[in-house]
Every structure is written in C-alpha cells, then in structure tokens.
Amino acid sequence: MRKLSLLIVLLLTPALAQAWPWSQDMANQISTKPQEGADPANPGMRPFPQRSVPAPGTIMIVKDKDAADKLKNPIALEDKSVATGGRLFEIYCVPCHGKEGKGDGYVGAKFVVTPADLSSQSTRDRSDGFIWGHITYGGVFMPSYANDLSPTERWHVINYVRKVVQHNKPSEAKTSAAN
Ligand code: HEC
User: Fold this and answer.
1) Measuring CA to CA, how many Å separate 102 from each of 43, 70, 123, 165?
2) Is 57's C-beta closer than 6 angstroms to any atom of ligand 1?
3) How far is the CA of 1 from the centre of ligand 1 (A)?
4) Closest residue by CA, ligand 1 atom 40
5) Atom of ligand 1 minimally distant from the CA of 111
6) What's the CATH superfamily of 76-173?
7) Is the CB of 143 under 6 A from ligand 1?
C-alpha cells in the first residue's frame, strides 16, 4: 500500500510528469517548424514578400518637420523620377492643388483655406526637405500622406513639383500630368 501511494505521488509531481515522453509528442510530429520551408527540395525560409521589410535607402524616419527640413533629396532629378512623381502628383495632390499646382483643385475649392500655390515663389524657396516633411506630416489643414506615399515616392513627387510645377526645365518633362 505504501509503495503504491509513493508511485502515485511520483506520477503526480509535475517536474517528473514533464520528463515523460508524452510531453514532447506534440512538438515531434511531422509538421512544418518555424523558419522551415514547406518544400523538402527547397529547405529554409521563403524570402520576404517585396516591401514587407525595410531595405536600406528606402526608409527614412524623421522625428518631426524640423528634422525633415534638413533632409537632402536622395533621388536625382531625372526624367524617370519626374514621370513617376507626375503620376503620383495627379492622384494625391491634384484634387486640392490643381493640375498645375496653383491651389485650384476641385476639392481644394471647398476648403476653408485655399491650398497653397506650389508654383509660387515662397514654395520655390522651400527646401526639398520641407516639402517632404509637409507630405509626411501634413500642414495645418493639409492631411498627412505618409500612409499613401512611401518615403521614396515622396521624393519623386518633389522632383515633379520642382521640374514641372515650378518650371525648372519644362521642356524636358514628359508626363501626362504636364499636359
Ligand atoms: C486635401 C487637400 C490637399 C491635398 C490632397 C494636398 N494638399 Fe498640400 N496643402 C493643402 C492646403 C489646404 C495647404 C495650405 C495649408 C496647410 O499647409 O495646411 C497645403 C500646403 C502645401 C504645401 C506648403 C506650401 C508652402 O510653401 O507652405 C506643400 C509643399 C504641399 N501642400 C504639397 C502637397 C503635395 C506634394 C501633395 C500631394 C502629395 C499635397 N500637398 C496634397 C491641401 C492639400
């Protein structure tokens, strides 16, 4: 009787019960383990889907607008960038700022405050970083476009604003938004 009760006590002691093989049965089954490929011919992790992880040169996180003001535009002012920026400008900026950026978009017309004329001398005098910060954080009335435009896309938009809206070199720009 004493032996039997000792056995029961041993069996019920959690530390000992853990040691029994059954505690690992669930882990040691045929299944895909974390970071293991499902395809035996091609073991290892699958590569991350595009744009799911930060890559050098594409992410730029700044504290606030003041910090953004000092940023330098990392994207060269080339036709390809201007064309990409033009397409994005048409989608995200034209509703308020108008096709030529003069602040006469259809949505902008309903605003209490007229959207800024991006071709004006005062906006020309702004740094690229300022405009990047304005798109990222928004203005007093302008909403933030940080969720809609990636950091790099914001620079493309700025290149478009510089070249086409502000007529730096209008003859070289070839985008639909320029017409
Ligand atoms: C919903 C309307 C709206 C949209 C869309 C919008 N803006 Fe604005 N934006 C404004 C208004 C209103 C102002 C002026 C008041 C303020 O700064 O909030 C402004 C001001 C600005 C200024 C500041 C100009 C200066 O010199 O002070 C910049 C730069 C600018 N917008 C760029 C953009 C760009 C680039 C886009 C597209 C990514 C964009 N805006 C989209 C409404 C808009």
Assistant:
1) 56, 25, 11, 8
2) no
3) 87
4) 93
5) 12
6) Cytochrome c-like domain (1.10.760.10)
7) yes
pTM for the complete prediction?
0.70
- Residues in Cβ contact with 129 at an 8 Å cutoff, skipping those fewer than 6 apart: 68, 69, 70, 71, 72, 73
Q: Is the CB of residue 145 below 6 angstroms from any atom belonging to ligand 1? A: yes
> 51-93: per-residue pLDDT in tens?
777 665 555 678 889 999 999 999 999 999 999 999 999 999 9
Q: Which residue has the higher pLDDT, 6 or 177?
A: 6
Tens-place pLDDT, residues 115-153:
999 999 999 999 999 999 999 999 999 999 999 999 999
116 in contact with ligand 1, CB cutoff 6 A: yes
